[in-house]
Amino acid sequence: xxxxxxxxxxxxxxxxxxxxxxxxxxxxxxxxxxxxxxxxxxxxxxxxxxxxxxxxxxxxxxxxxxxxxxxxxxxxxxxxxxxxxxxxxxxxxxxxxxxxxxxxxxxxxxxxxxxxxxxxxxxxxxxxxxxxxxxxxxxxxxxxxxxxxxxxxxxxxxxxxxxxxxxxxxxxxxxxxxxxxxxxxxxxxxxxxxxxxxxxxxxxxxxxxxxxxxxxxxxxxxxxxxxxxxxxxxxxxxxxxxxxxxxxxxxxxxxxxxxxxxxxxxxxxxxxxxxxxxxxxxxxxxxxxxxxxxxxxxxxxxxxxxxxxxxxxxxxxxxxxxxxxxxxxxxxxxxxxxxxxxxxxxxxxxxxxxxxxxxxxxxxxxxxxxxxxxxxxxxxxxxxxxxxxxxxxxxxxxxxxxxxxxxxxxxxxxxxxxxxxxxxxxxxxxxxxxxxxxxxxxxxxxxxxxxxxxxxxxxxxxxxxxxxxxxxxxxxxxxxxxxxxxxxxxxxxxx
Length: 495
Fold this sequence. Notes:
single chain, mainly alpha, three-stranded mixed sheet, 15 helices, elongated
């Protein structure tokens, strides 16, 4: 037989055998899948039944829980309604009691007024008069006790205030530190040795107290080696105090009597310097001699600064500028010189006399015989009124040029000076005040009273009254300490 045919037959037979075998295996796999499918269906049915049972059980539990919760809410609502009813009843009872109490109060007030009227008729005194008489009587009978109580309270309050102040200062220092410009308000006096500070302080501080009372400044005795500071916003006082302290240090004898003598001598010397400064200024600008009193007022400007600029030098500078401008414009040179030199003369008196420096300058110029053109130039230099003459316009321009040039001025102390002046004016307005000094940048006012007019209790009352008036009339940051000083001095001469 052909081998190719035999090969084909063999291949066909193999295919038939393979097909039979494969068909048997396929039939068996189908039976296994069917069995497995039935098993899965049964398992799913069982699981569905279990889930249904659990759902039914959970539903029953939730339904029971909601029923319990609903019952609790119902009981609470009933309780709340009962409380509301009780509160309404209590409110009604309180309203009735309030009405009754109000009627009783009105009756009591009416009876009280009737009794007061009857007492006033019987005593022939009003309630205010009776109160005043009682206060006077109590003050006289218990003056020592009152003073003792006041001192104890002040001591306790001071101790507590010191603690709080230290705490506040420490916090402030920790949060902010700024530089201080001290040369305008503090003068330093060199000491030959450190032990000189003890002699300046004196026994129990009596020398310091006497010095500050005589000069109206504040002595700064701190850790600065071989130096003592003199603090005051009044430059003339500060100059007098510096000169007097230098005399005392040079002499070495420091006691209250010697302090008074040195201060008197220093005042005389400063007055001479003021006179010489005024005369030199008049001569420098080329004016004929002015009235002696006007010259002295002008000389006081040597010790005054405005925005850090020396006022006397500023006035001289304004005069020179005004003359140069006036020569170009053909203005009256004499009017320019007088108006420019005197335009700020009121600043010399602004610490002693109420009112702004402009009005004071006008009043001073008018008092010492300056003509209307000069007065108008002074009055118009700050544009308070409209300048109507060439001379007034030139003085105003020269003043602006002097103040506005680079380096001429720095931050002003005028606001502080104004507050110091107002503080001293308030204190001086009280009866029995001898002298008053505003110190510590306006944070303290020292009032020296006449001991024959004011007693110890009166000093406490005056301090309270001054503080109250300051609160009512002034605007100021922080607090202001009112220190009323009453001193009795007995002097005899041994012969």
